[in-house]
């Protein structure tokens, strides 16, 4: 009996069609992040409780940035699961981070003057160098380099601690540096000059010099924290965000239209960047934590084992965060 041979041009059954390389759950989480961002941006006027906390506290809007950083880390664990050429992968990651950083400078640096203005251009002496996209780019490049160079997977059965202990070590080191600078740096008294900007009740073409009394270390308030001091010395006070959200504190007495009265505390008039240098360290840590959740997603196929490992990772981090919040 003759052997039966398959037809050479037979179409592949739909069930055997090539699966998409995208992970639906990651795309869904990204979409939820974008939705949440739009909700707090456009719904904040109707529901003030969802906007950013002026300083201490946690509101719905305060989850947006950590969520974006976290999912960036998860995505990198999937993208760099198998790296054949580390040098080439590094150059690609650096190029992407630079593009994202420059895009952030273009969008948030002051080049665009708002939806109602046709004018454009920015004073280079007052351009804002840091912002939302810039922070994501910093977290992205740190996490990408971690995944490219600091991975110790040598066998098929991957240990989520032993295989990535260098990444955990870097996250702990960055957190220690952050806490050391936040509580250890001495913040002296400082002065700044405010020109006649829309948020200040100064006469036209006028200016005023304010002095903020500090002479302390370890303060976590808006006036004398070391994060602001680092930005003022490294970046320059003229390159910081000119309308910080802490002006919504009751002590600043901000009026309708974002104007700060002259009798408000001096620091209420000062620029401050919520996406500054020091807090970029914790942004990188957030991306590294996202990497670990991405490893579980990439290396473990059983849904129950994934959920178990995610819980084993989440509970200690939650307890540690709650402990730090409790002790202040």
UniProtKB/TrEMBL annotation:
Signal peptide: none
TM spans (from-to): 28-51, 63-80, 92-112, 132-152, 164-186, 277-298, 310-327
Span of domain Heparan-alpha-glucosaminide N-acetyltransferase catalytic: 22-146
Keywords, ordered alphabetically: Membrane, Transmembrane, Transmembrane helix
InterPro entries, A to Z: HGSNAT_cat
The protein's name: Heparan-alpha-glucosaminide N-acetyltransferase-like isoform X2
Species: Punica granatum (Pomegranate)
């Amino acid at each position: 009996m003759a052997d039966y041979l398959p037809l050479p041009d037979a179409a592949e059954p739909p069930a055997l069609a090539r699966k998409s390389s995208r992970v639906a759950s990651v795309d869904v989480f990204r979409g939820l992040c974008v939705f949440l961002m739009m909700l707090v941006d456009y719904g904040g006027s109707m529901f003030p409780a969802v906007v950013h906390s002026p300083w201490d506290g946690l509101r719905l809007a305060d989850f947006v940035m950590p969520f974006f950083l976290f999912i960036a880390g998860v995505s990198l664990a999937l993208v760099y699961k198998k790296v054949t050429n580390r040098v080439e992968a590094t150059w690609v990651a650096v190029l992407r981070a630079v593009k994202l950083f420059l895009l952030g400078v273009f969008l948030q640096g002051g080049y665009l003057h708002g939806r109602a203005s046709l004018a454009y251009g920015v004073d280079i002496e007052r351009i804002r160098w840091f912002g939302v996209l810039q922070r994501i780019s910093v977290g992205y490049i740190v996490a990408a380099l971690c995944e490219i160079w600091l991975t110790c997977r040598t066998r098929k059965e991957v240990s989520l601690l032993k295989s990535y202990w260098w990444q955990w070590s870097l996250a702990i080191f960055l957190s220690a540096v952050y806490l050391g600078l936040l509580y250890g740096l001495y913040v002296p008294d400082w002065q700044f000059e405010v020109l006649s900007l829309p948020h200040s009740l100064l006469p036209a073409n006028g200016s005023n010099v304010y002095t903020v009394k500090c002479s302390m270390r370890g303060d976590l308030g808006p006036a004398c924290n070391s994060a602001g001091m680092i930005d003022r010395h490294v970046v320059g006070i003229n390159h910081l965000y000119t309308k910080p959200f802490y002006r919504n504190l009751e002590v600043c007495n901000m009026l309708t239209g974002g104007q700060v009265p002259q009798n408000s505390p001096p620091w209420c008039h000062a620029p401050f960047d919520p996406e500054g240098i020091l807090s970029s360290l914790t942004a990188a840590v957030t991306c590294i934590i996202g990497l670990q959740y991405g490893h579980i997603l990439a290396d473990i196929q059983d849904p129950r084992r994934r959920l178990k490992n995610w819980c084993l990772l989440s509970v200690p981090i939650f307890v540690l965060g709650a402990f730090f919040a409790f002790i202040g």
